[in-house]
Amino acid sequence: MKILHIVPSYKPAYIYGGPIESVSKLCEGLVKAGHEVDVFTTTANGETELPVEEGKTIDVDGVNVTYFRRITKDHTHVSPDLWKHLYKNVQSYDIVNIQSWWSFLVIVAACICHAKGVRVVVSPRGMLSPYIFNSGNSKKKKLIHAVIGRWALSKTWFHATAEAEVAECREVIPGWKGFMIANNVTLPDIPIVKQEKEVFTLIFMSRVHQKKGIEILLNAVQGISFPVKLQIAGSGEADYTQKLKDLVKELGIEDKVEWLGWMDRDRKFKVLMEADLFVLASLNENFANVVLESLHMGTPVMVSKEVALSKFVADYKVGWVSSLATNDVTKKITEARNEKEKRHWIEENGREIIAKSFSEKVLIAQYVEQYKNVINYK
Description:
Layout (H helix, E strand, L loop, with lengths): L1 E5 L11 H15 L3 E7 L1 E2 L2 E2 L7 E4 L2 E6 L11 H10 L5 E5 L4 H12 L4 E4 L6 H4 L4 H17 L2 E4 L2 H10 L5 E3 L19 E6 L8 H9 L5 E6 L4 H14 L5 E3 L5 H10 L2 E4 L8 H8 L4 E4 L5 H6 L3 E4 L3 H13 L1 H18 L2 H16 L3
Parallel strand pairs: 1-2, 1-7, 2-6, 7-8, 8-9, 9-10, 11-12, 11-14, 12-13, 14-15, 15-16
Antiparallel strand pairs: 3-4, 5-6
């Protein structure tokens, strides 16, 4: 097959977090499986631009990637150059997979694909959840959805990464055709070496964003009676980060919170391995690659029910699942600290469970099968 992926940003724009990892891993896996894969993306790298040659196809780990100039520096990622190139060339592809939603870049791209009669799969990456729909510029989103979004989505197939996202997609478009396949995550082949620590160490590793439930974690830490440290690894908007730091001071837990900032891939896995428990009390999370990354490094997890992988965590007993209530988060962290044998079992077995459940070979085969189903749909 000849497959085109359209995504607002692509590696090395790692500032955008998990989707950069999972989308690039998918594209690379499809190439290894013998398919021709192109990526159309922008030079977006947060508030800056990637140092790449615009409009030229570049080999990025085996994938043909073309970075187009964007004329906006925000999440709209408007790129007339990408749209023009897409309009001229999209009919040469068997299928198009659009990653994410809401940015003008991908909405217009979807309309171009429909105009040219090309089959399209949309991977919303959590962008169609009720939380996203009703947060931020919710009035603008609802207007866009009413005017063009609903029509554009209804002519596509959806790809969800978890059962919870399937339900979200069909809430937005009743009867929407689609399929569910988990994210394809790159995991390092490095040994797990754990050391006992006097202070029970929690690690939060994600974007520093309102939907991640960091306030819940901070309040939960205040209620913990034993020695504990919460490490916060990630970056976000300066104003929101400062708001969190002010809350830490207000709660009187400055000695229990460590701000690690954004970190590169090598350091990320080392920090995950060194922690006693990964914590994520998100208000909404369509997958959460870092849950798998943590388990791969032998570190159990505590996640909220709103994290799509919470069912996996509960079914395979690789961690603890809480509500968004502060006292319940405190309770689950306390249980994790006290259940040392369970933590040791997860350390010993987590990597094998992840390998069996999220095998790259199996996942890529599922994508290929589903792409063919979409192409051949009558």
